[in-house]
Known about the structure:
Elements: H1 3-6, E1 18-22, E2 28-32, H2 40-67, E3 196-197, E4 203-204, E5 207-210, H3 218-223, E6 227-235, E7 241-248, H4 256-265, E8 268-270, E9 273-274, E10 277-278, E11 280-289
Parallel strand pairs: 3-11
Antiparallel strand pairs: 1-2, 4-9, 5-8, 6-7, 6-11, 9-10
Amino acid sequence: MxxxxxxxxxxxxxxxxxxTLRTDDGRPGEVRVVFEGLPQQxxxxxxxxxxxxxxxxxALWFLFVWLVPDPVREAVLPDFLPRGLVFLAEPGPGGGGGGGxxxxxxxxxxxxxxxxxxxxxxLEPEPTPEPTPEEPPLDQLNIPAQMLxxxxxxxxxxxxxxxxxxxxxPGGGSGxxxxxxxxxxxxxxxxxGGGIYRPGSGVINPRILREVxxxxxxxxxxxxxxxxxxxxxxxxxxxxxxxIDVVKSLDPTFGLDQExxxxxxxxxxxxxxxxxxxxxxLVTIELTFTLR
Length: 292
């Protein structure tokens, strides 16, 4: 078979939709086109349906992707790290840099030219002095100091006792003063002052903690007795009331003075102090009886 016979020349199509070719055996054959004889309207419907089907598939895929939530990924650390793990220190990212002028001094502030010809230098603020630490206060010491009258020599201004009565004061004892004992001053016992003090000269008055009202007697209520009883009491160092004297009586007949003393005995005080130490102090208590 020659080369010319192997190559089968294609002839021009005899009619629309057909191709004619010649084979080796010399018999012509026909090749049908796939869409031969299909009307144009049917082809359009086929292509439109295929396009709609593909579009629906793509829309369903996007809808599925949009509805399905993103999976939550959590970082899971291993229970233990390998023993041979070595962390290497690597340089981190650099920070922000400054300008590129690289001046040795910081840039000056923006200033406007003044209107005056002469510039007055600004006063520099005076440095604030540092506060000096305060020294701790000295501890107070209670020194048992005594006056000169406690010595054997006679001091100027001290009243000398009478040799006959051995006392020149209104108190009981051999001393000079209003106390009881052989000392000088008010109080009981020997020495200067004594166990009972009066307010003043460093003595702080007691403060009332509990106050008890006096009660009327039946005879006093029938007699309609009203008034005030004035008492002088000694507040001891423990806050209780010691000796009580009636300075101004209201009714010794119907028993109101005794009721006043009985009520004052039940009072309680915060004891008075002298140089921070509780002492016995003589106070005045006034109790009023009133009928309502």
